[in-house]
Specification:
Length: 370
């Protein structure tokens, strides 16, 4: 018999590490650390600068970037514990990249062992292949994102950051789905298609859209422009959005040169949050949802996660006067991933309950057969 527990533990460790990577990425972004390392050696990049001369070399490379010239001019070397210094921002970007490399090793060596032991069934192997492909894509786009801030702008491109974050969350989500399918397999070998109404997946789409908009908001640090709620800079609908001359490709490309895109992202991000809340209330009011024993608890967890996320989001916005508080900003990003995870678990529970209902051993099917 193939032992299952070691593989399950390995998948759980992977989930925890990917989640931590997303959180560390949030800290890196909010501390302005993402552009502190201008190059990354695949082989020797594991080691940080170990001498004063090596530190000075890294610092000189950073001084040639637009971020130093336009934002951090006069920054001191400092220490990794001193906020606002070069060693501090270097540490967080280094730690972010090192953690990613660590995830690779944690995945690779157990995988080779399990594969040699033939403990990995083919469906699991296919799912893990997709996870690896997504992780590789996230790594590639991570460098594309960093490169966008090393040429002209003193920060990374917000749209590329949102894509990088979305791919990273996709890695976590698909790994979660892989874990659920392997660790909680139904008695039915092949799970049938989900028969729930399409709006179950529609709600998932709205959540994903909200996460992407949140990524753009984060990349732009848009909370600094309109740190107010429920209004947006004193208006329910910013007047700049009603100006047809503002709706140009140039404004979207050079979003940091005017208030238009900042106002638009605030309006969309908040608007989708209101729509999402309404959809959840409507979804929860449908009596058939609570007739499914597997879906009841997971939906409650999802609702609580959304409620917490709304509160955290409001506090983050109104606290972003002059500077975005790192603790609230990171918490907002971390909770966003948990909101998505809780809904994915809910979908899985619905799927399992439907498969169980269709199982020949279920009371309904037995009665039909009789």
């Amino acid at each position: 018999m193939i032992p299952k527990r070691p593989v399950v533990v390995w998948l759980v460790i992977g989930l925890i590490m990917v989640y931590c990577q997303i959180v560390i990425g949030g800290i890196t972004r909010l501390t302005g650390s993402g552009l502190s390392i201008t190059d990354w050696d695949i082989v020797f990049g594991t080691l940080p600068p170990l001498s004063d001369a090596e530190w000075m070399t890294e610092f000189e490379l950073y001084k040639a970037t637009p971020q130093y010239e336009k934002i951090n001019q006069g920054m001191e070397m400092g220490s990794i514990f001193q906020s606002g210094t070069f060693k501090f921002i270097y540490f967080w970007e280094y730690f972010h990249r090192l953690w990613a490399r660590g995830m690779g090793f944690v995945f690779l060596f157990p995988f080779l062992f399990f594969y040699a032991k033939k403990w990995l069934p083919k469906p699991l192997l296919r799912n893990l292949g997709i996870v690896v492909a997504l992780a590789g894509l996230a790594a590639c786009f991570g460098w594309i994102m960093v490169a966008s801030g090393l040429i002209e702008r003193p920060w990374v491109n917000a749209y590329k950051l949102a894509i990088h974050l979305s791919i990273g969350i996709s890695v976590f989500t698909y790994l979660l789905w892989t874990y659920l399918n392997y660790a909680h397999q139904s008695r039915v070998t092949v799970l049938g298609p989900l028969r729930s109404p399409r709006w179950v997946y529609g709600l998932l789409g709205v959540i994903c859209l909200q996460l992407f908009l949140g990524g753009i908001m984060s990349g732009m640090k848009a909370a600094l422009i309109y740190p107010t709620w429920p209004d947006i800079g004193g208006e329910a609908l910013p007047g700049v959005l009603l100006d047809r001359s503002q709706w140009t490709w140039t404004n979207f490309r050079d979003y940091d040169k005017g208030p238009f895109v900042f106002a638009l992202m605030h309006f969309l991000h908040r608007g989708v949050a209101y729509v999402l809340t309404g959809l959840i209330v409507w979804y929860g009011s449908r009596s058939e949802l609570f007739g499914r024993s597997k879906g009841h608890l997971s939906f409650k967890v999802f609702v609580v996660a959304v409620a917490l996320q709304v509160v955290i989001g409001i506090v983050t916005v109104v606290s972003s006067v002059g500077v975005i508080p790192v603790s609230w900003g990171v918490l907002h990003q971390a909770m966003a991933v948990l909101v998505l995870a809780s809904y994915v678990i809910h979908i899985f529970d619905l799927k399992r309950s439907e498969v169980s209902a269709l199982s020949p051993d279920s009371p309904k099917m037995t009665a039909v057969a009789g």
